[in-house]
Every structure is written in structure tokens, then in C-alpha cells.
# Entry
Amino acid sequence: MSHGTILKRESAPCFDAGSKYCPCELALLGQCVACSQLRGKNVCACGWSGVCVSLQFAFNGSRPAPGRVPSTVSILEQRVMDDTPDDVRVLILTLDVPQDVATWSVFPGSFVMLRPQGRSERWNVPLCVTRAQDSSLEVMMEVLGPKTIALDTAASSGSNLILTGPFWSGIQGIENLRKFGGGRVLAVAKGIGQATLLQAAEYVAHRGGFLRAMIGPGPLGSVFSAGLLTSLGASVEVMPKAKDHNLRRIAGELSAGGYDLLLSSGSDTQHQNLKSLLGEMPEPPAFAWSSNLTMTCAEGICGSCLVQGFRGCKAHIPENALWNK
# Structure
């Protein structure tokens, strides 16, 4: 993968297109993700998102829609995952949030930006939503560096937190999940990547599909999702540690299972390895993967998420821009 350099300015469908946050400030600045005309071109070459962003911008008086407003949220419950190694700390937070935030956080790939109260946006931590209900959200965080340590310290002291969101680009290739969610889905997840599977499993169950989850402990040393996935109707296999990272085992399942979609939730190395497996199949299933991009604002402004010229926090990134076939 190549990060951080603008190599091209192609259009791509935008996760925010058609929402109340579109058109955003990028349209005003001539940097719209989806619309080539709003980027100053004379032709329509949009990554069609089901809505004409240029027309919406004109109807709005050439003004951007109000953006996401940060909310002060309180912690309803916090707990530390107790089956991890001593040098691994994973915090699970249940947050009291505005009802509309919870309502729009039910989709697979939903995440929020969370930071300690009194800190600037550079302290934002993108956290996957594992459960959304009524006026509450559950998020999970592995404590690793300065930003997560600061958030852990604030949460442990009982302080309120600042939440911005939700955002929806936590799963790339989400259009494939929408298309094949009612079919047969194979999900592979390791470590903290298991968190992304929870809402995906619920989505597949609601669509009447079948989900088989092959999960491993990864660096966390925990398969915390096994019971939750089973309760959501998924078939779960816990993978042991293996020298080949269980690729042979996964390849066998792909060949025998008749799957419509492979969902990878883990590291970029895992994504690449699984995409390579698909490249060896005569009729491979579709592919979707969890996003591991660095994010600070999640609004396409700061540039932290740039990959091959695409603003990854907003754009549906084409597979061929990331993974070798």
C-alpha cells in the first residue's frame, strides 16, 4: 500500500453522499470526493452514489451542509477485557449518546471519533461501534500509544468524553456486503479486528444470510467475539496459531464453502494475503475489508487518510488501488 501521496484525483463513491452531511466543505473547496464537476472539471465523471452532489450543492445555494457536531458524552459502563496477556489492555466503553447518533451507528463499518474532554481534534481516536441501541453505543479500544493512553486515562477517571460521528467508512467494499449480505459470507478476523465483525454478523442475520467466522486471537491473545458471534447466528471456528497464518485452512474453506463474499477484518497483511488467495480461484467471491487507515478528522480535510490519491475516510476505495491481484 502507498499512503500519503496524491497520485491521482479520480472520482469515487462517497460514504457521506446522500446523507445530511452532504455536500460537505470539500465541495466548497473544489475537492469533492465524488463529483468531478465540483472539482472544476467540465464533464460528469462521478463515482455515482445515488445522488447528484453537484445538484445538491446548487440547491443548497452553493453552501456546504452543516457538518458533524461534536457531542459531550458520558460513560455508562467501562470494563477491561480480562482474558488478554498482561501486557495487553483493551477497554470496552458503553457511552450515553444523542439518539440520532445511535440510530445512524447501526450500519456495519460505523465508527466514531472519541477524545478526552478539553483536548483538541488531534487527540481523536477512531473507534469501531460494536453495538448501537436506543441512546447508547459500545466501542472497544486497544491501548497502544499516546492518544489511546490519554483516552484510557480520561475514561478511567470517569470524565466525560467528546464524540464526533458517526462515520461509515470502517469497512471498504461495503457495497459487496450490501449486495451479498443475504447470501453466504466467510469472515476472517484476528485480534481487535474481531470487533468489526459484530455489526456485520448482525447485518447478515437480518438479511437472512449465513456467516461463517474464522477467528484468531492475534496480538490480543483473545477470541472475545466467539460467544457474541454465535449468539448472532454465525458459525464460528477458532483458528489456532499456525506458521502459514492459517491460509491453507482458509483456502480450503473458500474452495468448499460456495461463498458469495469474503470479509477480512485484521491487518493490511492479512487483507493482502486473503486477496492473493482469491486471485488463485477461478471464480472467487467478492471481497470486503476493514479499514486500517490513519485518521484524525475523518472528514477528508487533514489528509491523514490519503491512499493512492483517495481520501480514504470518505471514499469507497477501489480494490485495485490497494491490493495486488
